[in-house]
Amino acid sequence: MIGSLAGTIRRLSVFLALLFLALLVNINLVQVARSSNLASQPGNNRNVIKEYGRERGPILVGGTPVAVSVAGKGRLKFQRTYPDGGLYVSATGFYSLIYGRTGIERIENPVLSGTDPRFSLQQINDLIAGRTSKGGSVLLTINAKAQRAAANAMKGHVGAVVAIQPSTGAILALVQSPTFDPNPLASNDSGVESAAWAKLIGDPAKPLLNRPLAEVYPPGSTFKLVTLTAALSSGQYTTTTLIPAPARIRLPGSTATLPNDNNRRCGNGQVTLQVALEVSCNTAFANVGIALGGDALLAQAEKFGFNSSFEVPMTAATSRFPADLVKAQAAQSAIGQYDVRATALQMAMVAAAIANGGVVNTPYLVQSVLGPDLAPLEPPAVPRPFGAAMTPAIAQEITQMMVGVVDNGTGTNAQIPGVKVAGKTGTAETAPGRPADAWFVSFGPADNADVAIAVVVEGAPDSGPIWGGRLAAPVAKAVMLAILGR
Amino acid sequence: MSTAVIAPPARTDGPPTRRPRRSAELALIVLALAVGLMAYAQVGFSNGGILPQHFVPFAVGSTVAALLAHGMVRWLAPYSDQVLLPVALAINGIGLAMIHRLDVAADVKAALKGQPLPRPTAPTQLVWTVLGLLLLTAVLLLVRDPRVLQRFTYTAMIIGLALLVLPLVPGLGVTINGARIWVRLGGLSFQPAEIAKLALIVFFAGYLVVKRDALAVARTQFLGVDVPRGRDLGPILVAWLVSVAVLVFEKDLGTSLLFFGLFVALLYVATGRRGWVVIGTFLFLVGSTLGYYAFAHVRVRVDVWLHPFADAANTGYQITQSLYGLADGGVLGTGIGQGTPDLVPYAKSDFIISAVGEELGLTGLMALLLLYAILVERGLRTALAARDVFGRLLACGLAFVMGLQVFIVVGGVTNLIPLTGLTTPFLSAGGSSMVANWMVIGLLLRVSDNARRPTPTPVPITDTAMTIVVPR
Questions:
Q1: How far apart are CA A182 and CA A76, in angstroms?
Q2: pLDDT tens column, A452-461
Q3: Of A12, A75, A127, which is closest to B400 when you measure between CB atoms?
Q4: Is there a contact between A12 and B265 (Cβ–Cβ < 8 Å)?
Q5: Tens digit of pLDDT for each residue in B11-32?
Q6: Buried b (16+ CB within 10 A) or exposed e, A309-322
Q7: How confident is the model at residue B46 (pLDDT cuts 50, 70, 90)?
């Protein structure tokens, strides 16, 4: 006699209950315990798709968007557009589905895409109200007029322009030349996107290179400002100290010589520091470098920001001043050659520090970060001093000497009637047989500067001292005119 | 010696003495309709802030269909369980809303690409639902007493096996995604295994009513457990071979596992011998091991289960996308229409559970699983309430197959067990599954009605001379 089956049916029920329990435990593990791990799996493109489905916040210059998302027609719900084409590319970067993002588009992505945790409260409100969540906005420190002036003046040149507000460190212009139009890279059509990319990476002029931030150049004679600061700060020199300035000097401990660019002595073979700066006398500054020694130059360069990394918020290339220099190397380094390398940003910081009474401000590009409702997410940027590179008195002295450079030295092309402009030219040798780089750093008005500018133009015909003034100074002048509203 | 007739179990509520008004069922149906229709409306609200197109005819149609089904059950099975129909309707409604939501996703995708809009699945699914409810009514109408089915024990076996091998018939069967489980006739395609499920449950129940004594009594010792004698192993070996054949020739892991599991479960329930479970488990392990080493498709499934991210772009794509969707849903889900469940392949059919998990979250998915658990529990309760062994085995088989199928498919898409290609009852897009499961509900209602009817009608049972029905 077999039972009524009630017992076995009950045991089968227990078995089924266990199966359901296993399912319930497992979905708890997948949806809660493992969810963040699963979200960060490399093959998980849900976040990207969500990002592209949400209206990305604009990047603003002044009150105007320079990168903005509009309703897309193709595969993406929203399309990123850059109304000014390549004008702001050094700052904004690009936003590409295939090739990723760069610049502010990359660094400030959490804000722009709306994934920043500071947005979560707002998004819950949006969810309740049935609104589609939007990204926040990023307001740049860029001055549109200065940016445009710099870009126009750089047309036909290869190089970079950086303008900084000396009192804060805010970056007012950030220009690369050549530039590129980021619009095709954000295209809704992957064919357009990849064709544009292929063209850009194949271009020998390297338009994708962010020259003002990512490229380091030998700073050449503009580095004499650093040497000069070290000299005056050492207490062993004044502006009127006489320095031997022959046509060429023999480098200590070697058979090599270091000539003046025109192979002539400066003055009568002995000049004051003031004149040495005005005529950009190599041998005089090499002698100063030898006398001060590599360590003193290194210490001074690092006070200006060499060998430090700056995030503006994009990480700029680190400008280098080598350590443990022998005297011959110190002589070359004192005029910005040998292994000294600087970004345009760094040389703008040197000029800005002199203009700002010696205090170096950390450069920055983001003025404020705004929520989707345009309410600030955080207090606006405030100056963050990097340190004092010199005393205010020495800054004052160097300013006067730099005004001399523009008034009656190598930088006359930067003169602006009615404005005292301080400047310094440079023409840097790059490599044997390669064209030189023309530099100009300046600030103005000299007694209370609104802007400090560094311009580097690649491909000067030779290393003659005239090229910094001839190629780069007019660009700096154009930017300064734009800032000063003239 | 044995009698298939069992005294009705003691129930606290007691069998209703007068025809119940089934107001509980009606109230629950209203609730089920509300859940389904609100989910459906939500798809429109989250996508443009308006009611979905054709919402009113859809709502009216579903309401009429559900109320008519209620009316039919009230007429044809007045004493039956009042929870089964509403719960199945609720799951069905959630499924329709989810499929509509995925239709919208497909429309958006096509519109963005400038392609013509694809044919929506939800209307077809609604037609299948109505057809399912009609078949439920037909079952109640034709099977006035479950014991009638016992007469068709061997007919059911033939029908079941024939349906099972139907996809292998050249020119009729089609292979979709590697599994040959579909039959295409004219423009219609269906999965005969879903219907075979029903026929085989009838066969197993009828067969075991007769053979359970023999299969239970004679036994020998094996590994310290009572196991049947060798000569009694025939039936389980046949069931095993058929399951292996399904695996080999139709490459359908899920159906294979479902049928074998069903047979072993009923064998155990009918005989009360744990030895059958031991043998069944042993045969299952042998079959799995053979399958793993002999067939690449089984090996791939197991490897993907163990290492889903090892080849996430190819073999692991479906399961990893499913897991990403579930993880994206989290506790509360993205909300209907707010997620991207269409990223998971076959989101409307095999992977609809991950779509639910993504948009309704852990909360919604747990609620859904509990609805299934209620369905299974009511089925098992019906089995306990049945007055004869056949009815008990039938209801038990129907409930078990529902529970096991949910386990296999949900376990598969959540990577608890290797992925197999089964449909989720009442939820997945697909006609054969829909009508088969509504017929399951129909049979359960019939058994339940018969069990709770105050004066059961005696029906002569021809195949089993041993069985005597004693009216109370």
A1: 17
A2: 999 999 987 6
A3: A12
A4: yes
A5: 445 455 567 889 999 999 999 9
A6: ebebebebbbbbbb
A7: confident
Among residues 320-379 of chain B, which lie with CB inside 8 Å of chain A? 320, 323-331, 335, 340, 343, 357, 361-362, 365-366, 369, 372-373, 376-377
Q: With cut-offs at 50, 70 and 90, classify the pLDDT of residue B364.
A: very high
Burial class from Cβ neighbours inside 10 Å (0-12, 13-18, 19+) for residue B295 reads middle
Copy the structure tokens of residue A230.
């070290």
Q: Which residues contact A383 (CB under 8 A, 6 or more apart)?
A: A167, A168, A169, A361, A362
Least Cα distance to A251 among A320, A301, A323, A326 occurs for: A326
Q: Which two tokens stand for residue B205?
A: 């129940």
DSSP label at residue A471 = I
Residue for token digits 């700073």?
A219
SS3 of residue B183 by DSSP: strand
Residue A40 touches partner B, C-beta closer than 8 Å: no
pLDDT along chain A (486 residues), means of 10: 74 95 96 88 76 84 91 73 94 87 90 79 64 82 95 92 95 95 87 89 91 93 93 91 89 84 83 89 92 93 94 94 91 90 96 95 94 81 91 93 89 88 87 82 91 91 72 92 87
0.85 surpassed by complex ipTM = yes
pLDDT given at position A73: 65
Distances (CA, A) of A229 to A236, A273, A443: 11, 11, 16
In whole angstroms, what is the distance from residue B52 CA to residue B96 CA? Answer: 13
Query: Could you tell me the two tokens for B12?
Result: 């606290």
Residues forming a β-bridge with B183: B173, B190
Tokens of B150: 């016992």
- Count the Cβ atoms, other than its own, within 10 Å of residue B359: 29
- B246 neighbors B255 (Cβ within 8 angstroms): yes
- As given in the structure block, the two tokens for residue B386 are 């049945």
Read off the pLDDT band of B3 (50, 70, 90).
very low
Q: Which chain A residues are closer than 8 Å to B265 by Cβ? A: 12, 15
Cα–Cα distance, B190 to B182 (Å, whole number): 6
Chain B residues in contact with A74 by the CB 8 A cut-off are: 112-113
Pairing label, strands A257-259, A366-370: unpaired
Helix residue spans in B252-312 (DSSP H): 253-271, 274-294, 296-306
- Which residues neighbour A71 within 8 Å (Cβ) at sequence distance 6 or greater? A77, A78, A79
Task: Please choose, from the candidates B197, B170, B192, B196, the residue with its C-alpha nearest in 3D space to the C-alpha of residue B181.
Answer: B192
Contacts of A16 in chain B (CB under 8 A): 376, 380, 399-400, 403-404, 407
State pTM to two decimals: 0.67
Amino acid at site B13:
D
Q: Is B396 close to A35, i.e. CB distance below 8 A?
A: no
One-letter amino acid for residue B282 of the chain: F
Q: Tell me, yes or no, if A382 comes closer than 8 A to chain B by beta carbon.
A: no
Kindly report whether the peptide bond that precedes residue B458 is cis, defined as omega within 30 degrees of 0.
no
Write the DSSP assignment of A241-281 as a string of letters.
-EEE--SEEEPTTSS-EEE-TTSS-STTSEEEHHHHHHTT-
Q: Cβ contact (<8 Å) for B340 and A46?
A: yes
Q: Which two tokens stand for residue A257?
A: 């010589």
Residues 6+ apart with CB under 8 A from B148: B459
Return the half-sphere exposure (C-beta side, CA atoms, 13 A cut-off) of residue A394. Answer: 21
